[in-house]
Amino acid sequence: MLLVCCSSVFNVGAQSYQGKWKLLKRSIGVSAMHMALLPNEKIVTFDRSEFGPSNITLLQGKCIKEDSKSSDCYAHSVEFDPATRAVRPLTILSDTWCSSGAFSIDGTLVQSGGYRLGEKVVRYFKPCMDCDWEEDQNGLLSPRWYASNQVLPDGKIIVVGGRYQFTYEFIPKLSGSDRILYKLPFLKETRYSALVPNNLYPFLHLSTDGNLFVFANDRGILLDYINNKVIRSYPVMPGGVSRNYPSTGSSVLLPLKLFSTTNSDNNTSTPDAEVLICGGTAPDSNEKANVGVFVPASKSCGRLIITAASPEWEMEEMPINRVMGDMIMLPTGDVLIINGAAKGTAGWGVARDPVLNPVLYRPDARNSDESTRFEVLSPSLIPRLYHSTAHLLSDGRVLVGGSNPNINYNFSALYPTELSLEAFYPPYFTKTKPRPSIVAVNPGLKIGYKQKISLEFTLEGSVILSDLFVTMVAPSFTTHSIAMNQRLLVLAFNNEVKKTSSGNYLVEGYAPETAALAPPGYYQLFLVHEAIPSKGKWIQIKQF
């Protein structure tokens, strides 16, 4: 067996794998249970404030007074700079354990809920130098522990569910309708049991018609959240597998492909919205794991076109059993499935057989043989189990951190608390073809809906027009195998590449037509040529 860190190909026995790994930081001081990338290219990550002492202290004078006799001088949140690998401790006052988040239009991380005194808190972190957490102790109407968030077309954020909470609400509280708690019986109907719900952290995806797809346990609905009405119920996902916490699978909305029609006013057809859900385990797996029986996780994946007239699940199988896997949309439109275990469930010490190999899923290869749809990639050397995270960076790498299946920080357990951060380099980094580079976005980095835009870029050699496209990716908030608000659009661009006077290339196209396709806020813009993405450029889209 040969395992070499940072090589382009790993050899395990006779098997070779694509992709490579690099350790970025042995310890950032906290275990990265929650993670988000801000538009200033900084990562904000945090665990929970009741884990006890972390491995990094707050700046002098910033200790948090817990009561009249004790103070907490340890940081439970940090800012990480992927470029310099610098770590800055942050001050978080309330318990963020198993909380949720999303971004506001101006790029502020809006983070909600948590445990005990943190369960009704809404926190804000702005992407600016030396900023720290701001907290609204009464930002939520209902306690939200294991809830999910999604940005909506009007820029508001919907918060759905949570332990023993069969409701949803909106944040921030700016109008009368935001101060109403809306019932959602579907969340109670899909609960496996009170102790093992199998429907926490429900999967949320904004459909192209502006309604919300909600998936819990083994089934989904389309919710008109404005009128508090379920407008359609979808078939149960086949296989008898639970997909949500603690039987944790993962979900993505597959790329939304915007194609221009031929008429001059740039009308585009509304694309279908298709969801992919992978992994999870048997409904009773958590109960069995708690008595020492570790059931193999599921290999199954299902695709569902939620906008179809008569939607049906299309099932397929991953090459590896996986529970607690993260699914990350790459700039190319492919899906990276990473982290997790082959047996057991989410929870304290109830998983076994860490899955070290990521898997690449190519959505557009679904009609060919399975070996081209799924590709097993190079393994990490570090198990990433319960409370691990993964996040796309603007340079195309995937940041991986966390893993703490222990009640407190424990470095001698079977699977110790993990404080490190790694970068995974997908296979497009190891290809010999040249990488495009975006030089400019016109008319600028702030764009409006339907607006004509152009990308000037450089590329060594000739452009193959049929292998060129542009994607924009919404920044997500990742925790517990769910990347909230993750969204990738393939933009509508003209079938032509021009040469500029400086010798660069130019392509022209259009921003998305509606906020239902692309809710307002910041996105990473990528140009992809021959399956190799440029570095991302941050743009902001909204009604100007």
Question: What attributes characterize this protein structure?
Answer:
2 domains; Methylamine Dehydrogenase, Chain H; 48 strands; mainly beta; signal; Gal_Oxidase_central_sf; 3 helices; single chain; Immunoglobulin-like; 544 residues; globular; 7-stranded mixed β-sheet; 6-stranded antiparallel β-sheet; Galactose oxidase-like Early set domain-containing protein
Describe this structure in words.
It comes from Gossypium gossypioides (Mexican cotton). This is Galactose oxidase-like Early set domain-containing protein. Pfam families: Glyoxal_oxid_N (PF07250), GO-like_E_set (PF09118). InterPro entries: Gal_Oxase/kelch_b-propeller, Gal_Oxidase_central_sf, Glyoxal_oxidase_N, GO-like_E_set, Ig-like_fold, Ig_E-set. Keywords: Signal. The protein is mostly beta strands. It folds into two domains: 20-262 and 272-429, Methylamine Dehydrogenase, Chain H; 437-541, Immunoglobulin-like (Sandwich), CATH 2.60.40. Helices cover 2% and strands 37% of the residues. The protein is built from three helices and 48 strands. Strands 23, 37, 39, 42, 46, 47 and 48 form a seven-stranded mixed sheet that branches. A six-stranded antiparallel sheet has the order 9-8-5-4-40-41, with no helix packed on it. Strand 1 (10-12) and strand 2 (15-17) form a beta hairpin. The radius of gyration is 22 Å and the shape is globular. It starts with 9 loop residues before the first strand and ends with a strand. Mean pLDDT is 93; it is low at 1-10 and 261-265.
